[in-house]
Amino acid sequence: MGNMETLQQSNFKNGAYPFYEKLRKDRPIFPMNSDGKNHSWMITKYEHVKELLKSPSFIKDQSKLFASSSQDAEQNEFNIFQNMMLDVDPPDHSRLRKLVQPYFNPKTIKQLEPRIREIADDLLNQMKQKETTVDLIDDYAFPLPIIVISEMLGVPAEDRDKFRKWSNTIVSASNEMDPDFMGDVEAFTTYLTELFERRKYEPQDDLVSHLIQTEEDGEQLTRNELYSMIVLLIIAGHETTVNLIGNTLYALFEHPDQLEKVKADPTLISGAIEEGLRYYSPVDFSTARWADENIDFHGQSIRRGDFIVASLSSANRDEEKFEHASQFDVTRERNAHVAFGFGIHFCLGAPLARLEGKIALEKLLTTFPDIDLNRDVTQPEWRSVFLLRGLDSLPVSL
Ligand code: HEM
Predict the structure, then answer these.
(1) Looking at the predicted complex, does its ipTM rise above 0.90?
(2) Segments making up each domain of the chain, as ranges
(3) Backbone φ and ψ of 166, nearest 5°
(4) Which InterPro entries match (predicted)?
(5) Which superfamily is assigned to 3-397 in CATH?
């Protein structure tokens, strides 16, 4: 079995953590694959991960490294993933990020607090009406961030089931030629095209309308970049915060003493969210870079064109950085985890995700103080999505 397959199988479960620990000790710069010329590596130590993410020698845009006429042709074709700020380097990255940064800074996000509280209350009221088992993922952790990001963007929240499917297909896709993948990407694109048309002629006070205006004005944003930006924000809004809420609650249920502490002292909720981010990091394998030059990286010779994946989950459990790293401790001090990445691509949505997480936990624990895992139902299962860590379902008794 290849190194990559072993990795994929162990990443889905808690089994990943002992595996990472072994790698940090024995092989912190781990060769995953090679095509004879270039290698793919995985790095697992906290300091190495930070260094990779802040170094300008490691870049996002591979087309710069392997320019060929076929790639040039691809660049000109319409592709909703091609121009995401997440996947480009300065100066394009700085230009794109600057356009949306004001909408996501902590001060602007703070203004959303009353509305996020309202959404959480609505969802909790709906949960109260339920007679059957409540699933915290489907009934709470998933809808909350979706409704928030949909409202920010100006995407009708009723369409959220469609987005969930498209978004899921995209992050789970193992093969971009898969007909389901292609069909969903096409449907997503058509949907956005229609939405852009509507907002162009009837602008609202939402992010889609603002970005269309920017695109119309020329200079700052191309049409392709507009699609990529919205797709990125929808996917980021769908696939990450649900896991932050679900994973943190799961960790609390697994550690009843910590749950009791948080219930007794709600000022610990922010600490619990940070610890949830560190302990069960929602984004793991999607943080990667390409080497832009031949470089010696902690004794390992990396060649220009090599691909390096940073395991954020592993970095966040590194004993050299975090005392008792494998313990879940809501009172942990100096919790400088890298769950939101590091450097110029540091998560744009971090203030939003933190606020949503805090409100979600606070509201849930005050509304249902006796909440616990429903241990009669099957154990919660991790989703088998390689790039992310999150639960398929989290059945609870209220
Ligand atoms: C970037 C994690 C929520 C939007 C990132 C990166 C990480 C991350 C690790 C850096 C990737 C890299 O360096 O390659 C998370 C986690 C979240 C979360 C753990 C929730 C708990 C969100 C939300 C949004 C968002 C709610 C927006 C709605 C973005 C964007 C970027 C990004 C736009 C790209 C930033 C750039 O390239 O400059 N996120 N994210 N994220 N995230 Fe998040």
Answers:
(1) yes
(2) 3-397
(3) -60, -45
(4) Cyt_P450, Cyt_P450_B, Cyt_P450_CS, Cyt_P450_sf
(5) Cytochrome P450 (1.10.630.10)
